[in-house]
Amino acid sequence: MQKLLVVTLLCCCAVASQAQADDVDYSQNPRVPQLLERLREDDGFSEAQLKQVTDALADAKRLPQLIVQEQKAPERTETWTQYSKRVDTSRIRAGIALLQDQRDTLERAEEEFGVPPAVIAGILGIETRYGRITGGVRVLDALATQGFEHPTRSKFFFSELVEFFALCRDQHFDPRQPKGSYAGAMGDAQFMPSNYRRLALDYDGDGQADLWSLPDAIGSIANYFTHYDPDWRWRAGQPIAVPATIHGDALPDGAVANTRDHFYYVRDLEHAGIKPAVDLPGDTVVGLVDLLLDGGGHEYWLAFPNFYAIMTYNPRIYYAMAVTQLARRIEAEASASP
Questions:
Q1: With a threshold of 0.85, does the pTM exceed it?
Q2: pLDDT tens-digit series, residues 154-198
Q3: Sequence ranges of the domains in the chain
Q4: Which residues form the Transglycosylase SLT domain (predicted)?
Q5: Are the CB atoms for 119 and 334 separated by under 8 Å?
């Protein structure tokens, strides 16, 4: 017992030492003048507003564990068997409840943007469990830490830090207040600041685009899918993906999966031994999805453009497939309910 106590005390001291070492004044970072210049030139910040930015940066906390979390995101490190557990009974039931509780808002979003209610529910279910878990990290800390220090993605996070300060000015937020994910995504819809500024909608008519409001999140997700990327916008009335089987133990030589850079005619895939679970016209253009299972097995799907529209939300195959399958289950079980 005494030895355990000593070890525990040593660990506590190490944690305290690390916390002290991580104290930093980001307002003194050499890239701050660049940040301020962008806010001045691109967003018309006054000198008083720029002073508020530097004051907020002085209060930002360095959280290097967020960089590790971003680098080890489950979409990168898990098998599909593990990741697919997110398509669980509780999410399906809560998704069905969302379709009922937000019926008018979802129907309006589908009418205006063509995005089905179940797909919007799938996004909300995977992102935040329908607004229940929106993140507990200050966005200021997440974006400052990664914007100034991320080893490979600092350019992206730095740009989002600039957008965050502009968003706070526009929405009258105190930059020290909003909380979100480890990456700085906010609200029920988990928008990054740039998307919040550009694509968030006031869908409940209260005069503010508030992504912590389910109606605003629903409208904003639908708006996102039709305006974020013209090349991969949502195509109303078209499918997302269908299961496929292959002849043999692996994809044929030359077949490339899990990318938006290679597409195939269904007839060519069928000649190569890849068969969709439903009949499709031979000239249908699809992508290949290869999901790694525990034990080294594989699950195959053929993806339509709407699957890649979902990937604009999060560019990981597992994420897009989880949204796809959750939406399918919600829609199927909602239709089967009396």
A1: yes
A2: 999 999 999 999 999 999 999 999 999 999 999 999 999 999 999
A3: 241-303
A4: 34-328
A5: no
Just list the catalytic residues.
Answer: 127
Confidence band of 338 (pLDDT split at 50, 70, 90)? low
DSSP H stretches of helix in the chain: 2-21, 32-43, 47-59, 65-71, 74-77, 80-83, 89-101, 103-113, 117-128, 139-149, 154-171, 193-199, 214-227, 266-271, 305-311, 317-336
User: Tokens 């030895």 belong to which residue?
Assistant: 3
Distance CA 64, CA 109 (A): 39
Q: CA triplet 159, 163, 166: central angle to 5 degrees?
A: 145
pLDDT digits (tens, 9 = 90+) for 230-264: 999 999 999 999 999 999 888 999 999 999 999 99
